[in-house]
């Protein structure tokens, strides 16, 4: 199967490999956050690191996680 509108996997892999370990500015409108790309079990994940004082980050930590069984 060869879909023409599929993103170029090789190009994408090369890009994520190059981004891994680097800090990319941005990711949050409320603070001077930066993003890092890391490989976890063969999957590239983007982590947003907020400043300690970031109100959005504080709100995120306070809020209970989604996916609770009881309603
Ligand atoms: Zn933030």
Outline the low-pLDDT stretches: none
Helical content stands at: 25-40%
Quaternary status? single chain
What Rg is obtained from the alpha carbons, in whole angstroms? Answer: 17 Å
Elements, N to C (H/E): HEEEH
Total separate domains: 1
Largest sheet geometry? 3 strands, antiparallel
Strand order of the largest sheet: 1-2-3
Query: Count the helices. How many?
Result: 2
What spatial form do the alpha-carbon principal axes imply? Answer: extended
Task: Give the mean pLDDT.
Answer: 83
Number of strands: 3
Give the amount of beta strand, in percent: 15-25%
Tell me the span between the first and last alpha carbons: 43 Å
- Identify every distinct bound molecule in the structure, by name, code or SMILES: zinc ion
Structural class: alpha+beta
Describe this structure in words.
This protein is α+β, with helices and mostly antiparallel strands. It has one domain (9-62). 27% of the residues lie in helices and 24% in strands. The chain contains 2 helices and 3 strands, in the order αβββα. The protein has helices spanning 9-19, 55-62, and strands spanning 23-25, 34-40, 43-49. A 3-stranded antiparallel sheet has the order 1-2-3, with no helix packed on it. The longest helix has 11 residues, at 9-19. The termini are far apart. The mean pLDDT is 83. The chain binds zinc ion. Zinc ion binds at residues 28, 30-31, 33, 50, 54, 56-57.
Keywords summarizing the entry:
single chain; 3 strands; 24% strand; binds zinc ion; extended; alpha+beta; 71 residues
């Amino acid at each position: 199967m060869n879909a023409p509108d599929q993103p170029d996997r090789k190009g994408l892999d090369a890009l994520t490999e190059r981004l891994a370990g680097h800090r990319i500015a941005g990711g949050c409108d409320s603070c001077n956050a930066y993003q890092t790309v890391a490989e976890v079990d063969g999957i590239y994940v983007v982590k947003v690191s907020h400043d300690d004082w970031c109100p959005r980050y504080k709100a995120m930590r306070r809020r209970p996680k989604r996916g609770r069984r009881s309603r």
